[in-house]
Each structure stands twice: as C-alpha cells, then as structure tokens.
Write a structure and sequence with these properties.
The complex is a heterodimer of chains A (292) and B (164).
Chain A: E1 9-11, H1 16-25, E2 31-33, H2 39-45, E3 52-55, E4 65-67, E5 71-75, H3 80-84, H4 87-92, H5 94-101, H6 106-109, H7 114-120, H8 128-133, E6 137-142, E7 145-150, E8 155-157, E9 160-161, E10 168-175, E11 182-188, E12 199-208, E13 211-220, E14 227-228, H9 230-236, H10 243-256, H11 267-286
Parallel strand pairs in A: 1-3, 2-3
Antiparallel strand pairs in A: 4-5, 5-10, 6-7, 6-10, 8-9, 11-12, 12-13, 13-14
Helix pairs in contact in A: 9-10, 10-11
Chain B: E1 8-14, E2 17-23, H1 29-36, E3 55-58, E4 61-64, E5 77-79, H2 92-100, H3 109-122, H4 128-134, H5 145-157
Parallel strand pairs in B: 1-5
Antiparallel strand pairs in B: 1-2, 3-4, 3-5
Classes of the chains: A alpha+beta (292), B alpha+beta (164).
C-alpha cells in the first residue's frame, strides 16, 4: 500500500557538517536519501521502515570529483551522469563508466548516486563489481571524524555494511594504476535498458607473452554481496592463458559463487552464465582484445 | 502511524513561473504538479521510476518526478510538457510527434517528449542508437517505438537542438 507523506519527516540541512551533526544526535534515527532512486521506490511500495529522512541531494561537498596525480576522489553524491561525463574516469576507469551507462535510464542516471549505490548494498548493483576490481577505498565521515576503509571489506553480509549508524560515505577513492590493464565488463539481463542484472561482471587483466601477470574479476548478482573471485584469480595468475586454464578458471568460478533462486533467474543459469563470462574474459585477454 | 509531521513551504519555478506550495516534504513532485498546480501532463505509470511517464526536467536534467520528494525541488527550475509550446505554437518535438504518428494513447507522450527534449539539448544531432538510449527509460505500450524515434529524427533535422 502507498505511504502517507504525513507519516514521514524529511529535512535538508544543506551542508555535510549539519547532516553529520544530525546523525550524531540521534544515531540510527535518520535515513539518508540522495537521489531517491532506491528510497523513493520503497516509499512508494509502502515498505520504507524509516520515518525520518535526511536529504543529501546537491550537497556541494559530496558532488566534487577531484583528480590528483595518483588518485581520483569521487564525491559520494556524484550521479551516474557525472561519472559518464568525466573524461578521465572514462579513459582510466572504463568499467565504472560503462556500468554507469547501463544503470537504469537517463532519468535515473541523473539522480542515482555512486554513494547511494554503495550504501544501498544490493548484490545486483552494476557499479559495484567495478569498484571491487579497481580496489576502491571509501572515506567514511561522522561527527567523530573520518576513516578510510577498503571497499573490498565494506559489505559484510546481505545488505550489511561497515557503516556505523552515525556515518556517511563521503568519498570513493580510485588509485590511478590500471591504465595499462585490459578491461572487460558485461551485463546479462532480460533487456539492456532498465533491467536489473541476472549476472554482471567487471574484470581487469594484464598479459605478457601469453602469461597472465595480473588479474582481477568480480561478479554481481551471484552472492549475498558483490563478489570478488579471489580463488579464480589465484588459479589464473602467473599461468599461460589457454583452453586448459579457461576450463579450470570456469570450474573455480562456479564453485566460488553462491547464487540464489529469485524473480530474475535460477542458480543453475547464473552459474552457467558466470562460467561463460569468466571464459569470455580470458578469451579476450588471450586475444588482447579490450571491451569496457 | 499516529504522528503527523509538519508541512513545509517550497518555492520553485514551474514552466518559467514562480510557484510556492505547502506540502509534506516527502510528497512527490509528481503529485504536487498534478494536484496542487493542476499540471496533469506528467502521468503516473509505475510509480517506481521504471516507465518514465512522469518525466519532467529539473534544472535541465530529466528526472522521474515520482521519485523526487518535493523538498528536494526547493528552488528548482521545473519544466513539464505544458511548458514546451509557446502559446499556440507547438514545440518542434510536439509537431514532429503529431506528424510522424508518434503518439497513440498519449500516456507515455509527455515523458517521451521531455526525454527527447533533454536528449536534443545535450546532443542536437543524435544517431538512432543515441535516440534509443536517450528514450530507453520511457516505456510505450501501444504506439510503437519506430514512429517515436522517427519523430525525434525529424525534430532534430528541422533545427539545431531545441530551438524552435
């Protein structure tokens, strides 16, 4: 049943510091809302349990994308459109900008934010495997101060994260060290536009004379959290890329994932597709083809 | 719920005119436009940001007005389908939709035209692929996308960007 707006409080304190102070006063009482592309859907469906919301939309401190010699810092309130339009991100982090391109339609890309996508913690989110393979780090902020954590440690279980009740994601940090890598990403869903993924992949690799020097693979929608395939990477790294390795990588990936049966797909289908995607990535790596 | 929270005052510009509304802060921009301002062009389809029939422009960006709490539209410049024509003179996209048969039942049309308007603003001479991407968040169940895309092509050909 649809929610009654009279039952909800929404405030827009207008600065990051004011939001953080509010969260500190009553930790856990306030739900942050940025572009609303997740929260307003729950609100419309009558399933939003929070009754007090605090707006992060258009906070200038969260909208900046800052580029330094070794790192790009993306404000958590940056939208998918902001990501798509950023030339350096497009050039150096194509897995992230391509995920931004296929997340929802244009209207949702204009409102959905990278920080919101991370905090919402859906295992099906398209941008999260990219952040895993780029080994992003997050700066979390609260009235107690800031801390910097590895994004790879952020999701601790289904919809569970490292965020404390009084904390916000302030910045997503990307180290500029993947320019020379081949990148591969693909979304498998019922249709290209709008559909939530059945499985999605982001992967990076570097091959020298047929040997895989370095590799990073992450999948979405195959586990309670966005999943880095560490065991598969271990099997592949340092090996000659060929049919035998592809078969072993495929088998390891299928063992490593924990897909569920839901409205979008079955475990068997997700396992088969995951194996196919890992194989296709290695084929591209072998052929030195790149695709983002 | 027993607690009823306070309404707030929100000032915004709608189709070039200043407007001030009193509303609960979580009221949807869509409902304020339709019920308080009498602008019924934006339609409610899915109510969850997937169909695009409630699309409007907010500070020049296409948004689904069903997903915008009115408080977040404080100070914003909103353009709805009612704001495109100049008097009796249709916007070139409206004209092209008429001429190409780009509207049948009309439910998706306001959102479709605003999405096309947003596209031509960013990309005055789009390829067919760019048109499809620009309109991918707007679903049509009866007209058919072929005529809709043709209308956008025609509008793009008859002038630079959104200029009339």
């Amino acid at each position: 049943m649809r929610s009654d707006p009279a039952d909800y409080e929404l405030v827009a304190p207008g600065s990051l510091q004011a939001v953080v102070s509010l969260l500190a006063e009553q930790a856990g009482a306030w739900l942050p809302i940025a572009g609303g592309t997740d929260v307003m859907v729950q609100y419309a469906a009558g399933t939003l349990s929070a009754r007090k919301l605090v707006s992060l939309w258009n906070l200038p401190e969260l909208r900046r994308i800052e580029v330094s010699e070794n790192e790009i810092q993306i404000g958590a309130g940056g939208t998918y459109t902001n990501l798509r339009q950023h030339e350096i991100l497009e050039r150096e982090f194509p897995l992230l900008t391509s995920a931004a391109r296929w997340t929802g339609g244009i209207a949702n890309q204009n409102r959905g934010t990278l920080g919101g996508n991370i905090a919402n913690a859906s295992p099906a989110a398209d941008s999260l495997p990219a952040l895993l393979v780029y080994e992003a780090e997050l700066i979390l902020v609260s009235a107690r101060g800031e801390r910097r954590v590895r994004y790879g440690d952020f999701h601790t279980g289904y919809k569970k994260t490292l965020l404390a009740a009084d904390e916000l994601i302030r910045t997503i940090c990307l180290s500029r060290r993947f320019v020379e890598y081949l990148s591969y990403s693909r979304k498998v869903g019922a249709r290209n536009a709008q559909a939530i993924s059945k499985v999605c992949i982001a992967a990076l690799g570097r091959v020298n004379q047929g040997v895989v020097e370095d590799v990073r693979i992450a999948l979405g929608s195959v586990a309670p959290v966005p999943l880095r395939l560490s065991q598969t990477e271990h099997v592949v790294k340092g090996q000659h890329v060929g049919p035998a390795l592809m078969q072993r990588a495929r088998e390891t990936a299928i063992e490593e994932i924990r897909p569920i049966d839901d409205i979008r797909s079955t475990p068997a289908y997700r396992a088969a597709v995951s194996g196919n995607l890992v194989t296709e990535f290695l084929e591209k790596l072998a052929a030195n083809e790149t695709k983002a | 719920m027993n607690t009823s929270h306070a309404q707030c005052e929100v000032s915004l510009t709608v189709n070039g005119q200043p407007a001030t509304v009193r509303a609960y802060p979580m009221e949807r921009l869509l409902d304020v436009l339709r019920h308080q301002l009498g602008l019924t062009g934006a339609k409610e389809g899915c109510g969850e940001g997937e169909c695009g029939s409630c699309s409007v422009l907010m500070d020049g960006a296409l948004v689904n007005s069903c997903l915008v709490p009115i408080l977040q539209a404080q100070g914003a410049n909103i353009v709805t389908i009612e704001g495109l024509a100049q008097g009796s003179r249709l916007h070139k996209l409206q004209q092209a939709f008429l001429e190409c048969g780009g509207a049948q039942c009309g439910i998706c049309t306001p959102g479709m035209i605003l999405a096309a308007c947003h596209l031509l603003d960013k990309c005055p001479t789009p390829t067919l692929e760019e048109i499809r991407e620009g309109l991918a968040g707007n679903l049509c169940r009866c007209t058919g996308y072929t005529q809709i895309c043709e209308a956008v092509v025609q509008a793009a050909e008859c002038g630079q960007g959104n200029k009339q």
